[in-house]
Amino acid sequence: MATTAASAAPAPPAASPASAAPKGGPRGEGPGTLHLIPVGLGDAPPDRWLPAEARGLAAGLDCYIAENAKTARAFLKQIGALRPLQEITIHTLGEKTSAAEIDGWLKPLRQGGEIGLVSEAGCPAVADPGARVADAAHRMGLRVRPWVGPSSILLGLMASGLDGQRFAFHGYAPVEPGERARQLRAWEQLSARNNQTQMLIETPYRNAAMFSTLLASLRGDTRLCVARSLTTDDEWVRTATIADWKSRPAPDLDKKPTLFLYLAR
Questions:
Q1: pLDDT band at residue 66, thresholds of 50, 70 and 90?
Q2: Which residues does the UniProt record annotate as the domain Tetrapyrrole methylase (predicted)?
Q3: Structure confidence at residue 43 (pLDDT)
Q4: Homologous superfamily of 152-263
Q5: Across all residues in the chain, what is the average pLDDT?
Q6: Which fold has domain 33-146?
Q7: What's this model's pTM, rounded to 2 decimal places?
Q8: CB–CB of 64/119 below 8 Å?
Q9: I want to staple 239 with a disulfide (CB 3.0 to 4.6 A). Which of 88, 164, 225, 231 is the partner?
């Protein structure tokens, strides 16, 4: 949910030798592997959010699928890629990417090999277009391996103290103010009816407006959690009732990736 900034990092753990052309090509017998590799949520060094084994594996891959090639290269620079960045193939996954294109990227894995899938930030394929790639890999009979790493959805839910068994992530609320307020109240009714935590995000520069709309739209006894800049030095998480929030100064959310969670009774 936030673009990862490149920063210097310790050399990654040793990785297996990189594969020869074609990119993502054979490294052994049998179907190859699509690696789902998390990317940091901020500028913290990768040893804080990605295990050593995953860093070593990711540093050795020669082919990636990513939403944004620039972000992917910043990630590879962070983890200390074992080859020059210009020698690493990065396929860009966009809204107009066809199923045939995705199948073409994954086709070399039928003879073995490995390809990495990364998101703009956090875990790929979770509230993320990378799910299309994972689905295609399964349809082709390939191995899909998820690696441990940061997910703002899970981390925010963990820290919120709200119901962690029944929850829903909605992505973005409507932009139009009236429609947005109506949708937030509809989710509040759903929350009360099912004891279900509601989660959403907003474009960082609109965070303050979203916070104000939440306070104006939800009931006083509804509990709201604001989870800002998770995993970074600026991380801040607070849960309180809407009534309590109204009595406090508004948190600084300007241009900072934030997850909003609420639970109604």
A1: very high
A2: 34-244
A3: 86
A4: Tetrapyrrole methylase, C-terminal domain (3.30.950.10)
A5: 91
A6: Cobalt-precorrin-4 Transmethylase; domain 1 (3.40.1010)
A7: 0.85
A8: no
A9: 225
